[in-house]
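residues and backbone:
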Amino acid sequence: MKRQLILEDGTIFIGEGFGSSNETIGEVVFNTGMTGYQEILSDPSYCGQIVTLTYPLIGNYGINRDDFETIHPAVKGFIVKEAADFPSNWRSEFTVGEYFEMKKIPGIAGIDTRKLTRIIRQYGTLKGAICSIEKDPQEVIETLRTINLPIDQVRQVSTKNAYPSPGRGKRVVLVDFGMKHGILRELNKRGCDIVVVPYYTSADEILQLRPDGLMLSNGPGNPKDVPEAVDMLKGVLGRVPLFGICLGHQLFALACGAETVKMKFGHRGSNHPVKDLNTGKITITSQNHGYTVDLESIHNTRLVVTHIALNDGTVEGLRHLDYPAFTVQYHPEASPGPEDANNLFDQFLELMDVNKREVVSHA
């Protein structure tokens, strides 16, 4: 079935539809990963977005039960050069098209994804629509130019109720802004006793859980659209060791007095080089974000930059000078991508140990 992708700048692509026949509108972004399409489509940080995959063949190893990052995908649509109809992998249970049909996600294949990516790189992320070939393009373009996309993405993907993931180790409260399961997996692997809480949980409610550490998850959208999380962080800073990832990193920066800004087209892929300013080591990282912490705004805070992106010099890591707290913009849990930065979870556990010893010594 023919389908069209229409951008707010008036660009029109005609391709083949796959997955659901639903029509959709969202922010069109691109991801440069060569593998990991299942983790990408199930990453809650893509809530409200239509994802273009720059790798030309998608679906060749199918969809399996184990590689999801959430139960209910929040991505608005998928754009690919070619969607494989006959995957070959011993774990494969569905084709990409079959899975998208089950989850009511529309896709479009057979378009020039290279051209689309070059447009986004030149002009920045654009609003777009995947719709029927019969739809009047001018009507869709007018809608795209006047519509305001939702700003409640975190509310859409965060858990509605707190729940435990029991362990015998350190008590970690994990604030779910759109958490990837990979973060929970890494903490479980280290024996942590985890309590996952909604994004709107207050500082008092978190402290009542008597955590040894506070974990801030990834999530979608603009960090300034989650003011309740900034207020919560102001109430817990200095009272519990903290580790933040992606959106959690940006919210931490806002709580400490820094600013965040929207990027032209963001970082989305599994091959982004990041430099540790302390050791000089280069790490290849998995990333997915459209906002960044403004470097100049950090100068008037008690934060120090620990990591930078080598491609564009943007802030990739922060540490507080007075409190046991650090954050990174990239994804140390990978999924998909390299696991070069996985040791940051161990650093978080060490930070909790050091903090506990200092509390005991001052008692």
